[in-house]
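User: quick one - fold this with glutathione bound?
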Amino acid sequence: MLIFRQLFDPQSSTYTYLLGDSHSREAVLIDTVFEQARRDAALVGELDLHLVCTLETHVHADHITAAWMLKQQFGSRIAVAKSSGAEGADRYLTQGDKVEFGDRHLQVRATPGHTNGCLTYVLDDDSMAFTGDCLLIRGSGRTDFQQGDAHALYRSVHTRILTLPPSCLLYPAHDYRGLTVTSVEEERRFNPRLGGRIGEADFAGYMENLHLPHPKQIDVAVPANLKCGQRDDGVVSLTAPTWAALTYTFAGIWEIQPQALEEAADKVQLIDVREPAEFNGGLGHIHGAKLIPLGELAGRTAELARERPVVAVCRSGARSAQATVILQQAGFKDAANLAGGMLRWRADGHPVEGGIS
Ligand SMILES: N[C@@H](CCC(=O)N[C@@H](CS)C(=O)NCC(=O)O)C(=O)O
Ligand SMILES: [Fe+2]
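Assistant: Sure. Structure tokens for the protein plus glutathione:
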């Protein structure tokens, strides 16, 4: 079975796609965003996938790819178009190549026009295609920089995308209105720049008159992406907490495992956000935990030292996850959730005060 997720970066309106093979657990990511690497890594980990490759549809002008950073973390190979001019990739793709992940694969189609190194990736059964900035939903990529060429883009769309089966779903690299997916049939009929009986010259005339401002990040994004996301400013990773070994979840929560909490116990303020009856009840509580029921937390943050990390605990880890959100909103930089709460803490054999053993 195919595992498929569409992810969004609100800053650049970029879609990142995760495709995995449920049998082998091998997966690829298409068009990652540097600032979203932690999110993507969390999802890959939670779905128990092995990231074999990151793919680019093109050298992006509006954000830096996370390909290089993810390679450092996962050992994933970096694949880009040969015609992109990018250096430092592990694989240089051309028309007709196959990118395999487990039993599945993507077929590479060269679709130049937005840039001369643009690729479209078509899933093995032609059920979906990832069109980058060549074909957007009811739109197209711009053609006014990075070797853009409206004539080439028109031909790419008509010969290599709209020739796919009508039901083939098309997933673009961006959407600026919140639209998520389209199909070959829809774009053939309704694309206002390229559909119906619109000819190549009509399209070129349309594109000459777009008058869009250049992407804000173009001057930093293009040089970094020409090195597959290795940045000139020396930033090699996203900043992460160092006070304990924490895990970031796809839900957006920093978690600490019971063992790591034991090791960091003298550094942290531990708050138990259950109700008093639970704190003094059968599960007991952790030595040194301060009782602040979740409903009171927002009003009692003055009782906590802002410069010291705070770990929140509850019965199962749900209310304490919300406690970390409340703490962050109150300006606490280092807040983490005890993964699995008192239930996991006890199951893992860590000591409790009170309670029934
Ligand atoms: N405002 C955006 C720029 C968006 C932009 O120019 N996007 C390119 C793709 S890299 C495009 O082709 N846009 C087509 C359109 O907006 O119609 C930014 O500053 O990043
Ligand atoms: Fe682009």
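One thing worth noting: Residues 150-161 form the longest helix (12 residues).
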